[in-house]
Amino acid sequence: MSVLLAALGAWLAAAVVYRLLAFWSIDRHLRDPGDGDASVPPSGEVLAVRPLRGAPSQLAPCLESLWRAAERAGARVTLAVADRADPALPLVEKALADGGRPPTDVRIDPGPPGLNRKMANLIQATGDSEAEFLLFSDADVRVPENYVGRAVRPFKDGDVGLATFPYYSVPGRSLASRIDALITNTHFLPSVAAALSLQGLHFGLGASIAVRSEALRKAGGLEALMEVNGDDYWMGRRIEDAGYRLAFVPMMLEHRLEDEGWRASASRHLRWASVVREQRPPGYLGQAVTYGAVPALSLAVAGALAGATPALWLAPAAWWAFDLAGLWRRRRTLGLRRRDLALVPLSDLSVFAIWLGGFFGRARPS
After folding, report:
1. Model confidence pLDDT, tens digit, residues 40-50
2. What is the domain-level CATH number for residue 224?
3. Residues spanned by the domain of 119
């Protein structure tokens, strides 16, 4: 039992060290300096491309935010729909008929055959584009008005081929949606920040990616991503392999969640976990060190069974006091509200269960 207690203590100590690194990294990489707008490079036309599928409740405000940002920067918008019967189309057509939107094309076509249907949709939408910069964003993402200007700012350096943004999740009203958001905001975002400190930027984040069209072509185009899982990760890696640098834009976007229920939320997170496991097996295994709640609870249980010092019973309370204090100090960056704090222990256990499930899940594109 003493060996087990020592191992759990070492796991917990490693988790504390990792969490301190993550908190420092959030302050370093994710806090937006708020330095205003930036004009689009004079020779660079920007095309904002957004694939649509279905008509969730947040589709309209998310689209309106993209149109406002595009209008402010003088960019064009292309909306990509794979099926003419898609329920997103009536909403888009009504909004465009009402007027007051920047130049917008609606492309309707299933795209080329292949595994990754999101990439197929983007290919059919951009195949004839001559824009110098392509700005991709998901349908459930709400962006600030200076989003386009901030997206293209890094490309003033000629060796930058891709720029990407962080995002936090905004939950719906259900408990499942709130736990879903906390998994992103208290685990995924800190892990992104820590990765930037430890390894630098070698990936894209799928909520929004801006690319130099020339760099994307040299990397094989979107066609090269038709048969891969985790297209955002591989887009960044292929552009980097083509000789370009990746840039991180510390402007936080909003990922708007639906009240889709426990099953749908868990399925999505399990799919993402399986994709990460397939892409980076050693790194995925190393994620164990990030789950401090598990060794803290295990120490309390093992200590009670072994009749060890009562101080071990306080390990979970000490862990969550430490973690909640660090999260609350960064609440604006992470999109946290006071009422979220009581749910952090449940989200901690949920994300550990998802990590375990990721070893057995099937990686597949969205």
Report:
1. 555 679 999 99
2. 3.90.550.10
3. 40-192+200-261
